[in-house]
Structures are given as C-alpha cells and as structure tokens.
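Batch job 17 of 40 flagged for manual review because the log was empty.
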Amino acid sequence: MDKVSFGFEEVAPEEKTQRVRGVFSSVAARYDVMNDLMSAGMHRHWKNQFVRRVKPRRGESILDMAGGTGDIAFRLAASGAAVTVADINPEMLEVGRKRATERGIEGLAWSEQNAEVLSFADPSFDAYTIAFGIRNVTDIQKALGEAHRVLKIGGRLYCLEFSSVTWPGFASLYDRYSMHVVPQIGKYVARDEASYRYLVESIRRFPPMEAFKAMIEKAGFTQTRVEPILGGLVAIHSGWKV
C-alpha cells in the first residue's frame, strides 16, 4: 500500500497505524462519555441491536475485535459465551478491564492485537464481532481476511460501523453536526479536538455500504447482508464462513 487515509490526510500505512494508536490512547478515558454525548445515547441502542443480530450462545467462543472498553463484550458475555476482547490499544483495554471489575463481570479474556495480524490459530472462534473499529484499521481488506481465517467453518462475522446516510435532508443535517459540533464536544469534554475531528473524517472516508459488503465477500464470506439504521447513519454488516 502506498498511501492510506488518516481522516482527510493521505499518509504512509505505518504512520496511520501509529497515529490511530495515539488517537485512542488520548481518548480512552473519556471514550464512553463522548459516545453518549455525540450520539445522544443512541449508540447503546445500536449496540443492543447489534448483539441481538449476533445471537451469542452459551459455550460459544467469540472474538470481539477493537472492543477495548468492553461495551460489546459485556453484552455478549451475558449470554454465557466465552468472549475474548481484543484491541490494538492497551489504554483502551485497561479501561475495559477496570469497567469489568467495577461491574463484577468475570471470565473475559483480554488481548492486545492488531486486527491485520491476529496471533490466534485458525480456526478458533464461532463468531467475530467488531463495532465502530473497522474504519480505523490501516488495511481493512487484510483485517477481513484475518477475521475469516480465525473463524471456524459455520462461523459468522458481524460488523457495526458508521456509514453513508441516504436520507437527503438528514444527510445534510448530520454532515453539519458531525463536522462542526462533534470536534467542539471533543475539545471541551475530552480536551482533544483533533482526535474527534479525525474520527469524524474517518467516517467520510469509509466505503459506502455496498462497497464494504463487496469487501467482506472478497475476504471469503458468503450470505453477506447489510442492515442500515437511521438511513445508513450506521449499518450492521454480516457474513458467514462456509
């Protein structure tokens, strides 16, 4: 790869990986508070809907990638599934461990991992989940290939991610809000305007729903689906390894 997007910038792949690490190191402590403020709490409903689609079952082994703060993992673990929380950022994982301890949630495995080069054997997991993390990966196609590799035959991939709003009036309203308001919330609440400006820009650079669906298929998944929420503000993507 010659250049990749870091928000609206074009940078070398290794630079993006390091800068993304820096972004999440910076925002880790206020990450969940910022999610509530930016989405007016809606992210909780999206995550609940996402986990309902995953349908975790007792005894299953699930890899929750980019899941450092535990938001998805806690929901998955409530079913009795064995969940491994993986994240490239140790500060995010530390936030998740602390939250798990505070809530009395036990049995989760925590692992520092790069989504593009997972250390797990193949096939290891019944399901692979990633929520609001895939767009921050330097080589998305490579990460999808790794997801396919570590899944068992019959395993499923579920991805929750911001996407391209298709409702005309809502699209322009959301564009103004995200580009102008979100960085200011980041400035005053998280003391980090630049990181939240990057996070908004990264949404703009992420492939549209159908293009990302094609990338999932290219990685080897079948029976792929995309479920838009709020006109594509976010979308749940899924696929199966058969």
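Reviewer: the log was empty due to a logging misconfiguration, but the result itself is present. The mean pLDDT is 91. Unflagging and moving on to job 18.
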